[in-house]
Amino acid sequence: MSQISCKLVDDTFGPYAGHCRGGFDFTLLFEESILSIVPLVLLIGVIPLRILYLIRRSVKVEGGIILPTKLILYGIYGVIQVALVALWATPSATKTKASVANTVMALVGALALGILSFVEHQKTIRPSLIIEFYFGLSLLFDAARTRTLWLQGYNVAVAAVFTVSMVVKVLLLCVEAQGKRRSLRAKWRSQSPEATSGLIAKLTFWWLNPLFLTGYSRSLSMSDMLPLDKHLTSEYLYRQMQSAWSRMAGQKRSLIVVYIGNLKWHLLSAVPPRLALIGFNFCQPFLIQRAISFSAQPVTDSTNNIGYGLIGAYFLVYCGIALTMAQYQHLTYRVITMARGGLITMMFAKSSLLEANQADSASSLTLMSADIERITNGWQTIHEMWANVIEIAIAIYLLEIQLGVACTIPLAVAICSLLGSVIVMNMVVQKQGVWLEAIERRISATSTILGSMKRIKMCGLADTIFDTETIDRKHVFAFTTPVIAPVLTFAVFSLLALKNADSTLDVSKVFTSLSLFALLTDPLSSLIMALTAFAGSFGCFGRIQAFLETKEHRDGSIKAIDAVTEDSTEPSKLSESSIESLEWTEKPIAASKIERVTGFLSKTDGEALRVTNGSFGWDPEKPPMISSINIRIPRGKLTMIVGPVGCGKTTLLRALLGEVPPLSGNVKHSFPGDIAYCDQSPFHMNGTIQDSVTAFADHDERWYSTICAACDLEEDFRQMHRGDQTQIGSKGIALSGGQSQRLALSRAAYARRDLVVLDDVFSGLDLDTENKVFNNLLGLEGLFRRQATTVIAASSSYKRLPFADHIIVLSESGTIAEQGTFAELNATGGFVSSLDLPAAGWEAKAGEANLDVLLPKANESANVDRPLIKEKVQDDEFEANKRTGDLSIYSYYAGSVGWIAVTIFVVAISCYVFCISFPQIWLGWWAEANARKPNGDLGYWLGIFAMLAVVGLASLVISCWQIIVKMVPQSGGNFHSRLLRTVLTAPMAYFSNTDTGVTLNRFSQDLQLIDMDLPISALNFFTVLVLCLAQIILIGVASTYAAVSFPIWFIALYLIQKYYLRTSRQLRFLDLEAKSPLYTQFAEVISGLTTVRAFGWQRALELKNRYLLDESQKPFYLLWAVQRWLQLVLDLLVAAVAVMLIILIVELRGILSGPSVGIALLNVILFSQHLKLVIQYWTMLETHIGAVCRVKNFIATTVSEDTAAEHNTPPPDWPSRGAIAFNAVGKSSLILALFRMLELQSGTITIDEVDISSIPRQEVRSRIIGLPQDILLLDGPVRLNVDPYKKASDKAIIGVLQDVKLWENIEAKGGLDALVGEINLSHGQKQLFCLAQALLRQSSILVLDEATSSVDDITDAMIQRIVRQKFSRHTIIAVAHKLDTIVDFDKVAVLEHGVLKEFENPGVLLADEGSAFSKLYKRGGIDVDFFAKKGEV
User: Which of 264, 543, 556, 1033 is the most exposed place for a label (fewest CB within 10 A)?
Assistant: First the structure.
């Protein structure tokens, strides 16, 4: 066409320019109006609004070179636009109706962009989204305009200047895309790199590159994690979610609806890229159809232009797929991170509000671990549910165009698959409930085991506890559709074609239809999996909602006593001026000792606490646990509560704290909220000793040193290699019983509260230590008395009653038996009088502390010259997790399931892949045969096709059956038994040095991954991996020229994975490492709710939880992000392969046949789809195989306490005599050494002349009866707990329960089949229960380790009587702090600092006033003649 006619065409809207410029161009008017003026109008309209919004904001950027550079470039760009206006305005220019207007608008736009750039640079922390988007879009349009101007040939000057303008615009885009992080002011410099990145950096995940470089060059740590942006922080998420949840209080509410409602805009942000992805995906069949028809066309200039257009189309489509896929998934995972953060913060906040009797750490941990993981997995495909429906509908419609009525076949197959998935979904929800309950039981049992390892080892319970669990699995439907649908569809189409003789199956139809089948089967299988996963997450939301709606603890039952009472008109506190005039630890003290003991001037007058007609219990439908309580606790005094075992002492204390609700009456405090509490079983959070003492209070070194001295901890510090920086372990497992109680006491004293509640805290202390601590805290100069602190102490011992200011005695029925001062009760003839206790000997207390000694100078410290050693990171585990992709890990897993099973699985999957891949070649041959003989030999072609489908389907069933039914139970059982055996044989040092949360992670999350997720990931990953290999082979077979380039692609893949894996594996480990403190803290708070609420730590713990959660969110979120980076890079690699193939097709027309083109391009589509799945399943497999790696590493690095020297088997009746000899044994704990829980430093221990070091330690423990202070009750019936060895008859079990006076209570609750947790045994009754266990065992040796520490004197006497009656022929070794219980023993060993000081008959030692035992006995305030008279020696 001539230039004159083309000039006329260019002045029309077009958009097609006809035969001008090779017949492959737009008209100039269309380009100027649609590709230039429309974007400019929108831009100029938006810029003023954006400037008005930003102008009110503060400046966030300091000076730098970027802003001047931008302004200079905008100046150049503006000058160029002026030049273009001048060129277009000249009469000689060949222009359209819009040319001048377009250029003027471009000039205005340049000016507006310069102003906006200046404001955006100053007022925002990130590059301008508007500017980046406009420049990126307009550059694509400018490229088309530049091509048009140069091809016109008559506007050369304009074309040249416009090209320069385009170059400047590219430079502007590069500068505008630069981040401003280095120029930000200090306040904003800590923002997340993602938050400070621009559009291009976010689209390409460029903001992750610094993290990749760090991870590639060295090991990552938590300090290397990128900060979270505001919308991912726990504080923001909790505020948003909790407020929405609270607004619906009192209504019928749904937690999942609340979350979807609050996250709707974040959820909807993923919709545009997902819709764009649908569009790009369905461009592919049209491109294949056009490419096949194009490959048969002759080589001309016109077809060459079409070829170049195809190349450009392939580039845009596949790059579009890469970008939209990555962005859609990233935005989805961002929402998942937000949902996870919101749920965990809400659950933790709720945990501190639970009723104490409703708190179950196992079920709560299951919610936080397993349920949150299920929700995370379920929401990954939340957008697939609607998008897949659209894709299925489009695919069916396009198949109808290609194949007519035969398209109903895949629709029918799809419906059948969906119906099957709905049925299976219901099964999944039900099975998931069973699975989660099994997880709860496993976590509960593991937590109990970890907290009671000393008792388990002493009692030889390891073999009894050792057991395994297996969990059922689910279905596979998704891979059936691509096998069945194509066969049935092509069969129906061919039969109809044969009947009607109006069409046949040609190459174009075959491969266009196959591409549509690919686009149908992918969303269909995805929809099935998405529905199943979302149904599972729906059930988890329901479980979490039930937890959030659990009845809450209410403090409303505690009321404040009026400031002025009938007993006192004095305030309870000193005035500020009087406090300032005193020493910081002191309050006014009268001159005489009597005044110091009986009152602190008027400051201790009045009531601290009052209970009126109180009855307390958990269930209003049942009788109260304690009733008719009317008490008045005097302020500033020591009140003691005593009574027989099981009378309700602990219940009364918790009622006073508001923990046990009143069924009637009321409780009033003088100072609610100013309380310190020490539980009978001390509550400790993992950390250092110093952290445990100070808790959440500010550290005051002088006061801290005073408290440590008062609680006699200084000697303990000297014996610990790290002093008060020693880690105490979860639940204080690294501490002895006495140390644990003194540490809890020191925490209560350090808090300086007005009310201190103590629940039998002196029971685990020896007499000497008890005297020191009691007098330092409650003596005449004791810290509690000097501060006029009100102390309420329940005690199982009566010897301290004379020192109490007020005494409350409970009866066995849980009512007040008597109350008053010691002098009053001693004169009434009641319970206290019957004890015949001597008066308090205040003057005789040589151990009373001098406060001046306890107060070091302000610059002194209890830990001078003791360096703080940072805890060693678990380097072995970290390095192991970096190697999770090693073949050795996969080999280890394969070995656990059996190599034969693995081989069968691999062969079956390979056969399945062959049967769904080879039909492409078969269909190509069939189409070529049809071209020669339409619809001929139909039975032959269809028969082979159907046979392949049947064999493929059978292979799929075999592979799924093999992995789900055969391999899963075996691997799950193997790993669980290996883990449990490793834990049970680990030395005691492991449990003191290892956080419980870490070990619980192995049994909860890791076993969950191995049991449930790893097999499915392995099945899916291996299947799609073999599919990808098959598709690469088919591409190579179809295009040998493409096969030549494969080595280059493989090298690129190798470099990409090498760069990616170093960082991703470390992130995966850090993700798991950061979860452990979350689990630990959650379990600690649940187990210590009473202590937490008494001290008022809820807010501090919530803040700590949010800090831990934010730390956990960082690797969790970044792991998703780096996976999206990998997805983008590999999709771009696929785009490069697709572009290369279409270039070959364009350049090799006439050489490549139609079927070859179809096979190659079809497999590009399939390869693209399956590569996405390979990444998805591979990342999941890497995560899940990491669990195997951690378990393997745990088993390999946890040293077993068993040694090779323990090979001798003792006779069946050993030990028959019970003769024990300690030969030159060094400074070790004798009891721990006897039970082989501590290795001897020197010497030997023999029993019946057999060296116990040569006997397996489990055998030694099972042959000795151990009764430690620790209590362990398994989750199960009474029968199992009394006889865990399952050797005794019911009659024998009932007999021992009767001996310890527990059978009556147990029989009323259901007898031997009653669950032990539902009997509500007190701490003392639990010790009696453990004594019943010991009575059933057969041995000649009994070891008592403070077994009567938490029982009253009467029950203690009963236990001593039972021991002497039932074990009269036994060798008895007793570790005793109550010295009166051992004075009738044959020998007493006195140890000091691990050295044996004396070993003799106690009578001989008591007769010698200079003996250490006699001095210790007298320091305990025990009168030998007095107790002999009572008949208790």
Answer: 556
Distance between CA atoms of residues 1219 and 1242, nearest Å:
20
Is 50 exceeded by the pLDDT of residue 232?
A: yes
Q: Which of 318, 312, 311, 309 has its CA nearest to residue 283?
A: 318
Q: Which two tokens stand for residue 760?
A: 């039998």
Is-cis flag, bond preceding 1215, omega within 30? yes
- Return the SS3 of 1220: strand
Residues 1110 and 1137 sit within 8 Å (Cβ to Cβ): no
Quick check: 1108 and 1078 in contact, CB under 8 A? Answer: yes
Contact in structure between 854 and 711 (CB atoms under 8 Å): no
| Calpha distance 57→1177 (Å, rounded) | 45
Length of the chain: 1433
DSSP H or E segment with residue 558: strand 558-560
Q: Is the pLDDT of residue 799 over 80?
A: yes
pLDDT single digits (tens) 987-1037 = 777 776 666 666 766 776 677 777 767 777 787 788 888 888 887 887 777
d(CA 395, CA 808): 82
Beta bridge partners of 900: none
Tokens (6 digits) for 791: 């102390």
With b for 16 or more beta-carbon neighbours within 10 A and e for fewer, the 117-140 pattern comes to bebbbbbbbbbbebbbebbeebee
In this prediction the pTM is 0.75
Residue located via tokens 């001037």: 601
Q: What is the mean pLDDT of residues 688-713?
A: 89
Model pLDDT, residue 142: 92
Q: Give the C-alpha separation, 454 to 1237, whole Å.
A: 8
Angle, helix 283-295 to helix 1154-1197, in steps of 10 degrees = 130
- The per-residue pLDDT for 42 is 94
Confidence at residue 567, expressed as pLDDT on a 0 to 100 scale: 41
CA distance 1034 to 1156: 9
> What is the C-alpha separation between 1388 and 1381, in angstroms, rounded?
11
Flag whether pLDDT at 525 surpasses 80: no
Is residue 989 within 8 Å of 1131, Cβ to Cβ? no
Q: Which residues contact 249 (CB under 8 A, 6 or more apart)?
A: none
> What crossing angle do the helices spanning 507-548 and 255-262 adopt, rounded to 10°?
120
User: Do strands 662-669 and 806-810 pair parallel, antiparallel, or not at all (unpaired)?
Assistant: unpaired
Say which DSSP state 1152 is in: B
Neighbour tally for 552: CB within 10 Å: 12
CB atoms inside a 10 Å sphere around CB 1311: 16
Pairing of strands 1244-1247, 1250-1251: antiparallel
Nearest-angstrom CA–CA distance, 149 and 145: 6
Omega cis (within 30) before 1015: no
C-alpha distances in Å from residue 1367, one per residue of 128, 382, 455, 1215:
85, 66, 20, 15
- Using CB atoms within 10 Å of the CB of residue 772, give its burial: 0 to 12 exposed, 13 to 18 middle, 19+ buried: buried
Which whole-number Å values give the CA distances from 12 to 41, 164, 530, 891, 1151, in the listed order? 21, 27, 50, 69, 41
Q: Which tokens belong to 747?
A: 């925490």
pLDDT in tens, 163-184: 999 999 999 999 999 888 888 8
Does residue 809 surpass a pLDDT of 60? yes
3 state DSSP class of 1021? helix
Residue 887 token pair: 């073949």
Nearest of 1197, 1199, 730, 743 to residue 994 by alpha carbon: 730
Q: Of 137-141, 199-203, 320-324, 367-371, which gets the smallest average pLDDT? A: 367-371
Are 792 and 653 spatial neighbours (Cβ–Cβ below 8 Å)? yes
Q: Would you say 639 and 719 are in contact if contact means Cβ atoms under 8 Å apart?
A: no
More confident residue, 338 or 1389: 338
Q: Is 1188 helix (H, G, I), strand (E, B) or coil?
A: helix
